[in-house]
Amino acid sequence: MPLDEGLLHFPAYFDRSEQEALLSDIRSVVSVAPLFVPVMPRTGKQMSVRMTNCGNLGWLTDKERGYRYQSTHPETGRAWPPIPAPLLDLWRDVSSYGQDPEACLINYYDDKASMGLHQDRDEINLGAPVVSVSLGNTCLFRIGGINRNDRTRSIKLESGDVFVLAGASRLRFHGVDRIYPATSTLLKNGGRINLTLRRVNP
Ligand code: MD3
Ligand code: FE
Does the structure show a pLDDT above 90 at 2? Predict the structure, then answer.
């Protein structure tokens, strides 16, 4: 469903059994690359999401060095595990981009977590699309324009939905306002997982 230029929403792209398979792949990633607490640069404030990555590069943030991509886990020092095959298949299906993603950020939201309005601009390659997968409880996602004060609109993202940001939409402000408890039975302890596939380098 095209919502705006470069903004695509595929409701229920993954069916329940595909979501379960994806979740099992993500649990394997997390067993090697545990979730960590991201910390904002300078202020040292903790984000409410927990995160990890798979792929050649992973996104992270800490107080001293700030937002960046690197090839190793900040606590274990090990390389990130590879991106699971079903996610590479997804990227090839929906991104119309000639190169595979280098990074897959895994964000875990408990039912109280949120993410403030922000732009994604840590990638050298801002021409590549971003592909996102939602698993677990429904969230209220907000998307604005390229200026922080532009009008925003809100969309519910449900388990199995895929969202693609490309072209003119790539630099739009966006965030997650809230998680709706008990809207999915996929995650036994509630919450929501978001997977974000990205190309970082040209
Ligand atoms: C719109 N994650 O990790 S994914 C992030 O649900 C992030 O965890 C949110 O924002 C989440 O940076 C949203 C959907 C998404 C990703 C990238 C975008 C929406 C976007 C880039 C530009 C505009
Ligand atoms: Fe973002």
Answer: no
pLDDT digits over 150-193, tens only? 999 999 999 999 999 999 899 999 999 999 999 999 999 999 99
Go through the domains of the chain in sequence order and give each one's CATH number: 2-198 (2.60.120.590)
**CA of 53 relative to ligand 2 center, distance in Å:** 14
pTM: 0.97
Please provide residue 191's backbone torsions phi and psi, each rounded to the nearest 5 degrees. 85, -170
Per DSSP, helices labelled H in 40-103 are: 85-94
Among protein residues, the one whose CA lies closest to atom 11 of ligand 1? 194
Atom of ligand 1 nearest to the CA of 118: 10
- Residue 79 DSSP one-character state: B
**Residue position matching structure tokens 């000639």:** 98
Does ligand 1 come within 6 angstroms of the Cβ of 170? yes
